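USER: My hope is that you can spare some time for a protein that puzzles me. I am handing you a single protein, as its sequence and its fold in token form. Walk me, if you will, through where the backbone shape changes along the chain. The protein I mean follows directly.
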Amino acid sequence: MPQNLLTEPAAVEPHPSAPALEFVRPGPVERSLALVAVIVPFLGLLAATSMLWGRGFNWLYLGLLLGGYILTAGGITIGYHRLFTHRSFKTGPLIKGLLAILGSMSMQGPVLRWVATHRLHHQHSDDTYDPHSPHAHGRGLVGMLKGIWHAHIGWFFTPAPANMARYVADFRDDRVVNISSKLFIVWVLLGVAIPAAIAYAVTGTAEGALLGFLWGGLVRIFLVHHVTWSINSVCHIWGSRPFRSHDESRNNAIFGILALGEGWHNTHHAFPTSARHGLRWWEIDLSYFTIRGLALVGLASDIRIPSRDRIEAKRRVPGKTAAEIVEAKPGLDD
């Protein structure tokens, strides 16, 4: 944890060898869609909780909420992040397509856009080109709060690099990923329609379908959104830094659990291509357990994990700050 949250490190300038980026502001359509993605799930949460009055909560809707959360959050953590962005394991077209669809159902953007943004983040983590660093937004309490807001939500509405396609050039000939990315809106709509249909099939009522839509659809999206976005904000401010990295990434046990292993964020930034983020036995990483399960039944292979020697070589030197141990910035992998 930082010694003084009010004087946390500021973002640094990109490494001199990093290419200059041209930034463009999102257009009105993009800004409107971002507002919809942020506001509508929140309104769904308000509607769902207000409908608890006089009705109580039903195990059906809890099951739709938790089941949908695990499936779609897994689509982000296992699919969007570990498979597509970092290629930390391999799988066939069926699982690849399923993970792309489940990740899309979380309403965090088409898979290619998500991957490009995350690769940009790794290339420029916590420097001025980072799309969602909480640093470099001023000192003191106001600066810290502005940074948290920017890293969590505000960055959706700020300028982005003009040519994001260059970050996903390796997917140019991947039909599964390209088709999945183009059909993003279809998957989002299915993601809210399926729990509504399940609830209607069980209850046989329009009210049941509405509650399934709210709890298994919008509330589930709201929770996945804010847990995922907390990796950008919380996990670059609060937590431990057991490994050397070129940024302020941190391991946060709370989000290690809630985000299915993504909260071991300093470990991830130290070993970006590792399929396993929780390297110690007590660091629960449900996404990695799932990948191992897929491998056991022959649906995943070439799972990448750092060697013991590499892990030891990356351990931070006690008493050293990030600025004192910083090295030249890497590319997408370290």
